[in-house]
Write the structure tokens for this entry.
Amino acid sequence: MAQTLHFSASTSVKNLFGRGLVTDQVAAVFELVKNSYDADARKVEIIFSDLNTDQSTLTICDDGTGMDLVDIEKRWMIIGTDSKKNTLYSPIYHRPLNGDKGIGRFSVDRLGSFLHMEAQKRGSTDRYLADFDWSLFDGESKRLDEVEIPYSRSVGSITDNGVTLKIKGLRDNWDESKLKELYRNLRQFKSPFDQDNNFKIYITAPEFGYYRKEVTVEKLDGVSSLWLEAEISESNPEIIRIVVNKDGLAYEAIQSNIYSFGPVKAQVFMFNQGDKIRFANRYGLRVREYGNIRLFRDSFRVYPYGEAKNDWLDIDRRQTQGMMRFLGTRDLIGYVQTGKEANPNLIPLTNRQGLEENEAFEQLRHFVIEVCVKTLESYYFTKIKKGSNETIQKSKVQISGAVAGLTQLASSLKAVDPDTAKQIRDYTSVIKREQQNQLQYVQDQQEIVKVYSRIAQKETFLHKLIHQSMIHVKDAASATNSFIDNVDYLESDDKEQLLNVYALIEKALSLLTTVRNDVTKKRQKTFQNIETLANKYLTGNHAFFAESDVDVTLVCSGNMGYIIDPGDVEAILNNLSTNAVKSLKKVDDRRREIRFELYKTDRFFIIKCIDNGIGIPEADRERIFDPFQSTTGGFGLGLTIIDEIAKEYGGALELIDTAIGACFSVKLRC
């Protein structure tokens, strides 16, 4: 009788599936957030605590379906379980499931050396607590089932369902740059094509100013003058529908579908030099730093495709073959979305970092290059680079040929039918005259375009000119109204009031002169004491704050020296103050307060403005940095001006979450 053998796993398997597969700390957090999404959670909290100490912790908690003891023993504790493999969608929100490898839980081992887990299943009050000391799996050789994991049971509220993972002994340094990377990656957690908004992600890291900062889906609307959408739909898989958007106009085309996969949807943006400047001003980084064409599977990012240093489409290799014919990764940003159910041959690798490079994957690459990238290249290098002059010239030649033909026809008819010949000559004259009018009109329009192009290059200065002028003219109007309301006749005091009004107008004219000089020459950046400049501004605008019953404090720490144009400091403080006062005027139930904080770090000089006003609604936070977008009833240019100034000094303008009011941080690079 034949005897049997059985496989067994040593504790080293834990490292193989944990730190061995999930090699990046951001990717590890990403996997745990995916698990919360699969569990039909409506929200997940990512909380960093005590990051600058030896007691640093990372807590990830959700309000999903949770787990009972059976789930923990039969699913969570079994490596490579296929509990999700044959289930395509979650039971409550019908979300496409992504965690089908059964190894995502080892992301916690990648993140820290100790895990405290609490789990409570929806509809139950049984709450299970377990402690995992990953070091018990290291060292001497032993089997996985020999390591004992202590757990206990408690009674929770019926509404406390979900899973909480508290990770201690963090293996990585979570500094400001890494948190920003995590935030950026989580903004791309879901595809921009996904319209559902039933899953919220919040990040808390008090050391870096994150207080339940909501992670919103990142979209690129309005940043590119040339972009396209391409789609193979489920309802009509025989064709590829392409819509090219150029300068606000849409051009639609249909191609036969030669691919065996689908449905698939793509959106690719092309950036010329002007677009790149707008993108950098809005997002605080360059197009090439943002990444290129990213891949999504069932609404989730597939890493590392589309990262800044990942050219999975060999776009830059193509560009080396013809710089004036092909686009590069630094010119493109895009999204490609596929689905697991309809595209089973697009298979994720075990470590969830990429797809198997099989025939289906090669077809997908071909689709992105041939349908998306090449279409944009044809519009940019052919239709855009050649411009409208080529079309106008072609039309001119065709019309001239037609006129010559009509003239010849009139000559041949003159002897037999002079009246008809005369009519043809008259029509020919009208055509020639109208052609001249049309050519003159086109030339005039081209001159207008040139003028507006020159103006657009100075848009930052024009914003500053218009907005600052409006602020001071408004001050002048306020002073005049105050004078009219408070005096009944003119005496010496009245004359003094008029002189004050005149001084304000003079100040506005002085500002116009300053901004005009900005256009023609560089600003005078000299070594300044920012505290001195701030005190000068606050003293000079004491009446402005007093009129609105606003208390202002200035807190400075460290070296206040910085090389800057004094006018830039005034513009920053003026716009921050103006917005804060407008918000505070809507508050009646507490003292109105503005606090300016000035300090230096190793890399930045920071100016913070903190108020206890009405704050900024979550829905408005994405657009407040865009020109002409205002939540205070103003002109919507103040934050744009500050952002432009900060960028000029290699810094950024940031909105920091606060429990009450608003906090803006202006960072100027040292």
User: Anything to note?
Assistant: The chain has four domains: 12-214, 226-384, 387-457, 526-669. The longest strand covers residues 112-120. The two ends are 80 Å apart (CA to CA). The chain is about 40% helix and 20% strand.
